[in-house]
Design goal:
- It is built from 13 helices and nine strands.
- It has about 325 residues and is of the alpha/beta class.
- Helix 4 links the parallel strand 3 and strand 4.
- Helix 1 crosses helix 13, helix 3 packs across helix 4 and helix 5 crosses helix 6.
- Bound molecules: phosphoric acid mono(formamide)ester and norvaline.
- The site of phosphoric acid mono(formamide)ester has 8 residues, from helix 2.
- The site of phosphoric acid mono(formamide)ester (CP) has 8 residues, from helix 2.
């Protein structure tokens, strides 16, 4: 499997075998990390730029730790500390960074921005989240599912909430490619866009998976293996969205009733950060304003399934390491 030089912008661009290769490489790198192996020789002397136009805890830390574990240097460009988009175009930025760095991570707004960066950089560009897609998150989610269930094919995966944004879109793509049965459980207006659904249905047909759009919570989650949710208002969306989202999506909160309707072995997953209590500034503010104690998931569910949720957060690092390693020329066989 030769992925050297490839960009990592959306999993639409990768075959099921290539995605499985990323997962195998991630698992091997995780094992090495756990055994204390030093892998700094693999990419020593290389440097990566990490551009974040939106905030991050997991993705930034995962890229930094993973790069350092592989011997690379990192430069972090924060949401306010560079010229990008304000005084310098994306194409010019890509040209400059491509001359200094061996790879570039970008987290920001439209997918077209990361695509433009990739077209002009001359080095691999990795999407660390855009409005439309969150592909590195997908590898962590699938690695975690594989760790809990062994086999991905045939698993029943239900995503609840705003299914037409980065998480809903990306999960539908990866499930369709890897043969899972994906259900988007949401009010109709939050269903993923028709063209993408059709594309995913075609991939699902080949992989033995399926794509379902379902408004009824109990129908959707019956016998589910994985119940997944995400925040109701994403980074960069206007504050005014909260009122409408809370009204529309409260019936789609992940509660114990939902989990009890799922399979006996079901796990709950969340890309994080999550509003499961009022211990955050925004959570407290919105809780007081709208009169609730949690949002997309109850604290009871979150605490009960904390182990798989945080396993998945850890897997961000192992999978991001695999993405950088593979696209910078490290092969699984050489580990
Ligand atoms: N899941 C995720 O991308 O987390 P961060 O926003 O903290 O990077
Ligand atoms: N949909 C969320 C995902 C965060 C990891 C957002 O874009 O803010």
């Amino acid at each position: 499997m030769d992925l050297k030089g490839r960009h990592f912008l959306t999993l639409k661009d990768f075959t099921p075998d290539e995605i499985r290769y990323f997962l195998d490489l991630s698992a091997a790198l995780k094992e090495k990390k756990k055994s204390g192996a030093d892998l700094t020789h693999l990419l020593r002397g290389k440097n990566v730029a990490l551009i974040f136009e939106k905030t991050s805890t997991r993705t930034r830390c995962a890229f930094e730790v993973a790069a350092h574990d592989l011997g690379m240097g990192t430069t972090y460009l924060d949401p306010s500390g560079s010229q990008i988009g304000k005084k310098e175009s994306i194409a010019d930025t890509a040209n400059v960074l491509g001359r200094m760095f061996d790879g570039i991570e970008y987290r920001g707004f439209g997918q077209s921005i990361v695509e433009e960066l990739a077209e002009n950089a001359g080095v691999p560009v990795w999407n660390g989240l855009t409005n439309e897609y969150h592909p590195t998150q997908m590898l962590a989610d699938m690695l975690t599912a594989r760790e809990y269930f062994g086999e991905l094919k045939g698993l029943k995966f239900v995503y609840m909430g705003d299914a037409r944004y980065n998480m809903g879109n990306s999960l539908m793509i990866v499930c369709a490619k890897l043969g899972l049965h994906f259900t988007a459980c949401a009010p109709k207006k939050y269903f993923p866009e028709g063209g993408l659904v059709a594309q995913c249905e075609a991939w699902a047909k080949e992989s033995g998976g399926s794509v379902t759009l379902e408004e009824d919570v109990m129908k959707a989650t019956k016998g589910a293996d994985i119940v997944y949710t995400d925040v109701w208002v994403s980074m960069g969306e206007p504050d005014e969205m909260w009122t409408e989202r809370i009204a529309d999506l409260t019936p789609y909160k992940v509660t114990m009733d939902v989990m009890n309707n799922a399979s006996e072995k079901a796990i709950f997953q969340h890309c994080l950060p999550a509003f499961h209590d009022l211990k955050t500034k925004i959570g407290k503010e919105k809780g007081e304003q709208f009169g609730f104690e949690d949002m997309e998931v109850t604290d009871e569910v979150f605490q009960k399934y904390a182990k798989p949720v945080f396993d998945e957060a850890e897997n961000r690092m192992h999978t991001i390491k695999a993405v950088m390693a593979a696209t910078l020329g490290v092969e699984l066989e050489t580990l």
